[in-house]
User: Fold these one by one.
Assistant:
Number 1:
Amino acid sequence: MTKKKKHTSDIEKVSEEFTLVQEEINKDLLNENNKQKEKNKTYVLFVSLFRNLRENKLYFLSFVITVFSIFLFSIIKVQEAEGIYNKNNLEVDKSNVPVSKEENNTNVVVDEIDVSDYIGIYSKEFVLTTPITVSETCKVDSYKLVYQVKKDKTITKYLYNSCIGTIQIWSDKVGYISSGGARYISANKVNYLFSPTSMKEVDGETYSTDNTISSLKNNKKVKNVDFYFYGDNIVIRTDTNLLHLKGSNINYNLQDKFTNNGGNLKKTVYKAGASNQFNFIIFSNGDDNTCYSNYDASTEDSLVYKIYSIKYDSENNSFNTEKELVTRYKSDKCENYETDLKILDE
């Protein structure tokens, strides 16, 4: 009797285990069926979408607009996130920068800066492509741009030449500024990098220590010559010429374009009252007369002089095309001559 009960119990266990296995199999089959159904639904949806895009132009246009809108929205969100990030970084940088010469940072605090290691004179020489005449006694074939760093925490920039003399371009207090994750010494909106033997303008020229210049003082030696500075661009007005220098290049030479042949004026080029404008007179009569009060109408008429204006474009650092203001012939006599001279200096 006991053996029979035990045998029955074993059969029941086997039956239960078989039932559990069968249930697991059924579950797996059900999951596979569900997955297959999902795949079928996805396939049907994709086929339907493709068919509508191909056959329905309005549906296709709506689809394109939707995709473009989602793409544009994503870009805007990314830019906004980057803007917030950059703004936060900028605020952190500002809190750590005692000095900035940028437009949005005008508070000058120089107490924390230390320039003791950089005190000295630095220069770079530029040899001109052709010599220029600045005055009767001054012919220039090269010049130096010179920086002086002083212990009073100032940087001063000069134009230096033996016959021109020393001309101060600008002077400014130095300070720190952060740009592009780096910290620079800055003055007059120019950032600098220093080494034991040089001073480099960031994105500009490199100036080497100069032991040949012992001191620098504003001392222009040439008379009746004006110098105008636009960064490293130099405009020189003499009594008879107008020049534009940039480094070693002569970008404009008035005498190369216009030959003055006649008249008796010692000064033919003027700085006009208008910003960055110059006026000049060019004679073409071939003699010392500036006008002809006794002009004989029976004789051949001819050109005496023209007056021009020219403006320096400080944004593009170049001279614009000359504009003709006045043209006078011998037949005009001298009735307008004095008035014309006033135009030169207007």
Note: The chain has a mean pLDDT of 81.
Number 2:
Amino acid sequence: MGQKIQYAGLALIIIAAIILIISYFAGWNNINAVNVGSFAAMVVGLIVYIVGGKRSLNE
């Protein structure tokens, strides 16, 4: 179960990074909701990845 949680966190980080890259090339630099939302998703993904890693070590 911890491995699946870890993969979900990694996927969230990658999706948020792709959104940031697309927003840069699309010219959405001034839309704070996109920038802050992607950054927050990256932080949440990192936390989920760490928690999933700790759970997989306990199993």
Note: The CA atoms of residues 15 and 21 lie 10 Å apart.
Number 3:
Amino acid sequence: MKKDSERTEARVSLLTVRLRWVVAAFIVYALEVGVYACFLIRHEVSKGKPPMETTQSIISYMGDFMGVALGSVVFIFGGIDIMMILRDYFRAQREKRVEQARAEARTKGKAEGRAEGKAEGRVEGRAEGTAETYRQWNAWNTRRLDAAANGQPFHEPPPPPPQ
């Protein structure tokens, strides 16, 4: 057994209109035919032709117009579905582009963060290396000066130069 939601989404095969819109489609169709009939009858009667000829003209024109009215109703209500399908398609495409842009931005941000971190690490490493080199030279020089002040020989080689 079908659920109510499945029944309302089902289609009437002849009109290709959703079942829940059949009443609205019929009202639109009836309005089109009714308005056309009013104008047609007034026009044909005002010509002053014999009643039989007037009736034949009205029936002939109404038969033609009923097909046009049916086509317009199908076009209107089918067009609504097409617009919804297109809206969903374009929305999905936009969401895909946005997600792709987010992923690219995330990847770019990570790469920039890594590069920035490496650069900062190099600067910090150089600063620490330079400070360590100065500390070693300062300690060596202090020992050399102390040995010279005490009159002791100083044969310790200097620290290696920075690389």
Note: The CA atoms of residues 40 and 58 lie 7 Å apart.
Number 4:
Amino acid sequence: MLLPGPLLWLGYRCLTTIWPNIALGLSAESNSIAGIIAGFSFTMLGFLAAVITILFSVSGSKSYQRYRNAGNLEVFFFIYYLTLVCLVVTAGLSLVALSSLSEPWGIKVLLGSFANNIFQVFVITVIICNLASKGAPRNPASPAS
């Protein structure tokens, strides 16, 4: 859950070593990037609140019970809490990147954390979508698609 950022950074460094003309030059726009990522972090924190609401709405379904009985719910909540903490850390890193104390490493760490957050939110979204689709009530009178 914490590897996408460092792996993407390593891949980027390898590519820019081979082809230096593809470097993004993000440090010139670090304030704009930090603001965008801070907005993303706070928005995703709200999204995670909605995710829990969806989870509780399907908590009576058989698929949810199977998911819980298999021990997967504990894994889901670990990922959920880790994502919450990582989003708060990313928001804090955005503030550091916006401050005058920011060093060149600040934007690099921020972008790595941002990549991790995107991956984490994607995993949570896939899990919730699968649970919600399996836990949705079936209408036997509707025609099959």
Note: Residues 13 and 20 are 9 Å apart (CA to CA).
